[in-house]
């Protein structure tokens, strides 16, 4: 459940009034004393990164207590307070707004109201349960329904679709350059637009066997609507002919002739607060301490949703409690042995809503933007083969700093020796993975940025993404790789150079 802005803020104020949170906001000057000694060229705190600490933090953050940490909810705020308390306890200084660990920002949600109605023949359907409307747009349609099979040009040519609601069964095989998920949503959107252009007043898709898998797994996002920063493109409310998605079980009755399609869609919009958590470990060099190596991750996941196999809490252990446990461990290592440059640890809120926290922080950083010399982002770091990983931003057109990439490659070759999958960083990879994590807004601002990841797996965005499934030794090695890269950048005499004329493909 998401909370309307007024109730969320009221509860947030009560939570932030507690003495524990007051300590976070006020800080403790004794906890922030840093070593004055400059580290040698070889000294680091790699040994402080332990499986025990990482497992403890992972299980705490990905446990049911935080209810999946959905962006824009009290659960995300509670998890954020817990993270800030860990940073305070280990001696990381607050670097958010007003001397706190927190940078609050608003996210705007646009959704279909509960008063909206959808009827097909004698079937009364509810958005978010047995039918899904693809876009939260205002609509009012009362029209005859026609079924056009699989919607081939020959089948559509036999039917006058003008002034009708058109139903069709999804079918097709994606080309090699597209994942099925992207093919599915792209095809439904494109072909619906063609039918509406031909005069259809609404389009109804019925899942085939393969599309049904995605109907069951991915429609929780459609149920919630769209999210954006206030004023962003996803906040716009407009009128649009509805596109409806039904389960495969509807195929038998949707074919019946003489049915009427009646759909009244109303849209509402809410603002919710989300939060970035920001801490720093000051550097030891009198000049370089004014520059920052930004360790990036995100603390939110999907929250409480429709139960799958009896489990309704989508805990997001790999996505992205692994990145959070890694960032805490890296912060702990920098406290033990600070680098010449300062370390800036940023947990971004509402990443799952469209990289909202990183978009906000990169536009409104709590340190001078030009002082950020590199961004090292941790995203899903604890699954798949023990010796495999990937580095996003390591090859053109995604690579914006060869210096930064070489540092990461050297750290991997010297210690962790992961076999690096380069396919997922290619511009033609069907998942477009480079564009789906918090390094992206920084790269768009020409800040050197890379992402450490162990890539997707079958439990991605399902309730099965549990802490028990995480490979703790692998996560520890991923963390060490990320830390050694950050340590090198923090101590090298010059900041990583940008690739000349860097430009992303989209």
TrEMBL record:
Keywords assigned: Signal
Protein name: M28 family peptidase
Origin species: Spirosoma soli
Pfam families, per the entry: Peptidase_M28
SUPFAM superfamilies reported for this sequence: PA domain, Zn-dependent exopeptidases
Keyword Signal on entry: yes
Database matches in InterPro entries: M28_fam, PA_dom_sf, Peptidase_M28
Residues spanning the signal sequence: 1-33
PANTHER family membership: METALLOPEPTIDASE M28 FAMILY MEMBER, PEPTIDASE M28 DOMAIN-CONTAINING PROTEIN
Segments forming domain Peptidase M28: 276-482
Lineage: Bacteria, Pseudomonadati, Bacteroidota, Cytophagia, Cytophagales
Keyword Ion transport set for record: no
């Amino acid at each position: 459940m998401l909370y309307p802005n007024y109730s969320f803020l009221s509860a947030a104020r009560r939570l932030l009034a507690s003495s524990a949170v007051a300590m976070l906001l006020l800080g403790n000057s004794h906890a922030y004393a840093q070593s004055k000694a400059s580290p040698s060229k070889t000294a680091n705190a790699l040994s402080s990164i332990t499986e025990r600490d990482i497992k403890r933090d992972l299980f705490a953050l990905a446990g049911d207590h935080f209810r999946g940490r959905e962006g824009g909810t009290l659960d995300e705020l509670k998890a954020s307070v817990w993270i800030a308390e860990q940073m305070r306890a280990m001696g990381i200084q607050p670097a958010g707004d007003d001397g706190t660990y927190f940078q609050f920002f608003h996210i705007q949600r646009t959704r279909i109201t509960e008063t909206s109605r959808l009827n097909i023949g004698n079937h009364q359907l509810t958005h978010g349960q047995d039918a899904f409307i693809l876009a939260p747009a205002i609509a009012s349609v009362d029209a005859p329904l026609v079924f056009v099979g699989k919607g081939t040009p020959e089948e559509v040519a036999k039917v006058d679709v003008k002034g009708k609601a058109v139903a069709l069964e999804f079918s097709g095989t994606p080309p090699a350059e597209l994942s099925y998920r992207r093919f599915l949503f792209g095809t439904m959107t494109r072909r619906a637009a063609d039918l509406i252009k031909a005069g259809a007043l609404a389009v109804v898709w019925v899942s085939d066997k393969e599309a049904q898998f995605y109907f069951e797994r991915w429609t929780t996002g459609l149920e919630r609507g769209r999210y954006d920063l206030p004023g962003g493109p996803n906040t716009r409310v407009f009128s649009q002919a509805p596109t409806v998605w039904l389960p495969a079980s509807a195929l038998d009755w949707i074919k019946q002739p003489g049915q009427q399609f009646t759909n009244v869609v109303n849209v509402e919009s809410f603002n919710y607060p989300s939060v970035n958590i920001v801490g720093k470990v000051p550097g030891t060099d009198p000049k370089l301490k004014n520059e920052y190596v930004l360790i990036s991750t995100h603390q939110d996941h999907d929250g409480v949703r429709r139960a799958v196999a009896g489990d309704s809490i989508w805990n997001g252990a790999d996505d992205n409690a692994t990145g959070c446990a890694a960032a805490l461990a890296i912060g702990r290592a920098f406290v033990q042995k600070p680098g010449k440059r300062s370390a800036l640890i940023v947990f971004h809120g509402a990443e799952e809503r469209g990289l909202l926290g990183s978009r906000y922080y990169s536009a409104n950083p709590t340190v001078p933007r030009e002082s950020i010399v590199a961004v090292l982002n941790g995203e899903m770091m604890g699954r798949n083969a023990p010796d495999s990983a990937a580095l996003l931003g390591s090859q053109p057109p995604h690579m914006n700093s060869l210096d930064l990439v070489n540092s990461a490659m050297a750290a991997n070759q010297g210690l962790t020796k992961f076999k690096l999958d380069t396919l997922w960083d290619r511009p033609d990879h069907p998942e477009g993975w480079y564009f789906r994590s918090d390094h992206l807004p920084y790269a768009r601002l020409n800040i050197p940025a890379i992402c450490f990841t162990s890539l997707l797996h079958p439990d991605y965005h399902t309730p099965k993404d549990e802490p028990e499934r995480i490979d703790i030794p692998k996560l520890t090695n991923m963390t060490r790789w990320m830390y050694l890269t950050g340590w090198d950048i923090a101590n090298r005499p010059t900041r990583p150079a940008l690739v000349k004329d860097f430009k992303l493909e989209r």
